[in-house]
Amino acid sequence: MLKVVLLKADLLTLFTSCKHLEIYLQNLSIDILGVPSDTFDSCMDRIENSQNLMMVPRAVFESTQHRLLPRSRDLRAKLYTCIPRDLSTARSLAKLSGVYTIALRSDTVQMVDSTEINLLTQVRERKFIEVHIHSFLELLRSDKKVSTERMFYFLGESIEYALRRDVPVVVSSASPVPSQVLHPQQIDALLFSLGFTKRERRMMLEVYPLELLSIWREW
């Protein structure tokens, strides 16, 4: 019987040093790892040559109506995830050309909603939503009066609606600290607890990340 090898990909970690990256890789096995572009530049030769690992240069951009996107040449050099800072910015990000992801975090979950997803189905270029799991897990450690259960409900609803409308969703750990980074297998377990099927989880953790990388490289 043919053995199916599952791809382990995390397209966004926020490690700022090679030391953090090395600590992570000592403890966990992974195939594709997204890291900030500065970390990518300083650590790539040191890490990638010694491991069966593909590293992807990433960047986080805070989008506002004043400046919606980075320059085109920057979008081509590194794969951006854009955090909309208001509702009108979120709607604009759904319509612009370029390869980037729209961040679905605890502070944007009410902006990346069914209306946003409907807009994403109407554009010619395929747009990706990227879930930053760490921002939701931080709610469990926060003293703020936020209903964690409510936030995870909104997260699950947004993901489910996006998948139903054929809008690709990528789920990344998006943590700056090795000890708080969820491995793809842990993310898979979390998605399972939110009610997603094996096929849906595989799409979010394997198929869509590869599709996103392919589109970005060819753009």
Report what the structure shows.
The chain is an alpha/beta fold. The protein has one domain (9-218): Alpha-Beta Barrel (TIM Barrel), CATH 3.20.20.140. Helices cover 45% and strands 17% of the residues. The protein has a 7-stranded parallel β-sheet with strand order 1-2-3-4-5-6-7. The longest helix is centred in the C-terminal third of the chain and has 21 residues, at 198-218.
Give a summary of the structure in a few sentences:
The chain has 219 residues and is α/β, with parallel strands linked by helices. It has a single domain, classed as TIM Barrel (Alpha-Beta Barrel), CATH 3.20.20.
Give the structural class. Answer: alpha/beta
Helix content: 40-55%
Uncertain stretches: 1-5
Kindly report the spatial arrangement of strands forming the biggest sheet. Answer: 1-2-3-4-5-6-7
Mean model confidence by pLDDT: 91
Fraction of residues in β-strands: 15-25%
- What would CATH call the class? Alpha Beta
* SSE order, one letter for each helix or strand: EHEHEHEHEHEHHEHH
State the CATH topology. Answer: TIM Barrel
Task: Break the fold down into its secondary structure elements and pairings.
Blueprint (H helix, E strand, L loop, with lengths): L8 E2 L7 H10 L4 E5 H12 L5 E10 L8 H6 L1 E6 L2 H7 L6 E5 L9 H7 L7 E5 H9 L6 H17 L4 E4 L11 H10 L4 H21 L1
Parallel strand pairs: 1-2, 2-3, 3-4, 4-5, 5-6, 6-7
Which tags fit this structure?
219 residues; alpha/beta; TIM Barrel; 17% strand; disordered N terminus
